[in-house]
Amino acid sequence: xxxxxxxxxxxxxxxxxxxxxxxxxxxxxxxxxxxxxxxxxxxxxxxxxxxxxxxxxxxxxxxxxxxxxxxxxxxxxxxxxxxxxxxxxxxxxxxxxxxxxxxxxxxxxxxxxxxxxxxxxxxxxxxxxxxxxxxxxxxxxxxxxxxxxxxxxxxxxxxxxxxxxxxxxxxxxxxxxxxxxxxxxxxxxxxxxxxxxxxxxxxxxxxxxxxxxxxxxxxxxxxxxxxxxxxxxxxxxxxxxxxxxxxxxxxxxxxxxxxxxxxxxxxxxxxxxxxxxxxxxxxxxxxxxxxxxxxxxxxxxxxxxxxxxxxxxxxxxxxxxxxxxxxxxxxxxxxxxxxxxxxxxxxxxxxxxxxxxxxxxxxxxxxxxxxxxxxxxxxxxxxxxxxxxxxxxxxxxxxxxxxxxxxxxxxxxxxxxxxxxxxxxxxxxxxxxxxxxxxxxxxxxxxxxxxxxxxxxxxxxxxxxxxxxxxxxxxxxxx
Length: 479
Description:
The protein has one domain (29-468): Amino acid/polyamine transporter I (Up-down Bundle). It is built from 22 helices and no strands. The protein has helices at 29-40, 43-46, 49-56, 60-84, 91-99, 101-134, 137-155, 159-190, 215-221, 223-229, 235-238, 246-255, 257-275, 287-294, 298-332, 350-361, 364-369, 372-404, 406-410, 419-439, 441-447, 449-464. The protein is globular and about 70 Å long. Mean pLDDT is 77; it is low at 1-26 and 471-479.
């Protein structure tokens, strides 16, 4: 997403640069804040939490806290780097400046592929949510395709419209989670008993085998989809080039992460397990929907299904947005075909949007041949591995920045706390999660995609490195 000096042309034959060659700063503070919140409430929470609860039991709450703490430090590192030099349009740019153009190539294309797989997971989830209403899978797939077409059309208009969509989608998510927590608390106070005989009680958190009912193996198994639930938390860093006031909006969005993790993950899942004991949660469906079904509130279950459907659509919308911007940045660095760097008359990278949407739509093949949850597990495993690589490169860039520019850190207005030491702690944690993914058969095979991808990247870099724009095109640091 770098903005460089070379003009973008609508065709190789044109001699004059077009009027539309730069991304516009059209995202206001409220857009950035809600995009950050929306990024912290992903499909992995709404769709995947049933599986994580069934694997880890109540200890899943600790899993989400640990991952949330680790990713908070990733975000602080990213925030310090982006605000160190406002010419950095995204983490792709500071990777190029600090690690070299190869890092921009690797992080740009890997982030693009990560969001393609994330979009696939979101579309798989959307199919499952439509099926909840219509019952018939082919009809649900047709409605999912229609959803994807609508998202493409909206993204082709303006970036401000993207911000508005995410603003309202995020508000729906927040309202739904707050309502769920409030309903769970009310049921505890009233000692509610469902028509199926389920008693609501805080004791449900430990009276069904304890806090670690499946032991350490189950606790560790909960990390795979739980990691995927945080995918998109770094999206606020991909909006830096289109934020109106990044020095004010980015710190505010990043510093609110601990509160969001506590509220949207810990309290929400605790409310689910208080109302529905962990061993009664169906791993194949969304527990947010099933909670109201089990306690006999059928109408509320339908309403919650609408909420989780909009959540999955929101996450897919974010994937379409961010993947197209990464392709735009790669094209401007000479690391992708030039036509991917062309903006339409509304200053939107339309060709990148089309490419990403077509590939995301290919996930319909998975839903037609496998169960929704099986397909969801496959694509989320691949996405989780790729995002761990992205987050790790952000930290490696930060460590390089600390080594090269100590004075910049000393005078930073948004320094990362415990910078060097926590960077190494988080990198060790990511390595630990990768080992856990390799140990489980359902996540081991999807992990094989990652080595193949990095071989493709190495070959691709050999092809484009002579024409690639290096870190010299990033403006010098501003302390």
